[in-house]
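This part of the workshop introduces the protein records we will be handling. A record pairs a protein's sequence with a compact description of its fold. Comparing a sequence with its tokens is the quickest way to learn the format. To make this concrete, we reproduce a full record directly below:
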Amino acid sequence: MIRFLIKPVNAVVAGYSFLKSSVTGETSVYGMPVALSIELTNHCNLNCPECVSGSGLMSRGRGFMDIGLFEKIINELEPYLLNLNLYFQGEPMLHPRFFYFLMRSGNLNTTVATNGHFLTRENAERLSVSGLNKLVVSLDGMDQSSYSSYRKNGNMELVIEGIRNVAEARKRNSSSLKLIIQFLVNKKNEHQIPAAEKFVREVKASLKLKSMQIINKGAYEKWLPSTEKFRRYELIKETYTIKSPLPDRCPRLWFNPVISWDGKILPCCFDKDAEHVMGDLNGDSFREIWTGSKYQIFRKSIQSGRDLIDICRNCTSGLKGVIS
């Protein structure tokens, strides 16, 4: 009974910590995170131009998470977590032990996001009975031309086939797996949203329309759609700027850290190139890092000037009037 209460009690404590810190300006941290993103690998089979991994802009080393490291993470954090994301940069299904991670995460509410190129009938079958809660598949166009304009080296028909494989496996196994099709809205594909909606109905999935992050300064005009609610940026004095006042607070630093494939703890999912490493799990426990001085200093810097932090200047937290 006591173990059953750990998760909800921790969520309340973490929430209190964030609220107190937001009001007082302190950096109180009493609980552990309620959600976690783990990067199984930062390798990818695609070369998406506005992705740090796919574009080649990533400067950190590439690799695959070690099983022993994953076990250490789960053993320490499983009692507290409400949600677990098994993805960050890269394509998680490229990990040769991908299905082991799913099996080991069976007691957690787990989500995987994939570009959909590895959803064979066999893999779809295994996913449908794995206990995975959500599978998010990126489908950013409804014809090969619009799709591959962003998903460089991608095969739209293969992704469509994979989605159908998952849909059929869910039905065959009466699976509770939630299938979500993510559509990254940009200038090349915004006219295809009705076709995406029709396809999603056919496979009995959910559609998530998402605005697009742009990391290359000269690429705004190329990608920004005409529909205002899908534009993360606005043009101010000939400079494109995120539509956010960047308030001096961020719940991610109290609720949802990221762990890279090699055990580095990152403050959030916008630190894609691991520029702000809070600590290394190869040497310390998660709790030591989570409550340590480096993390506290970073939290304090967010509260005193979030607009001065590089990774925050492309962050969706605080966006106004935008589907993020």
Notes: The mean pLDDT is 95. Residues 138 and 182 are 5 Å apart (CA to CA). Residues 2-24 form the longest helix (23 residues).
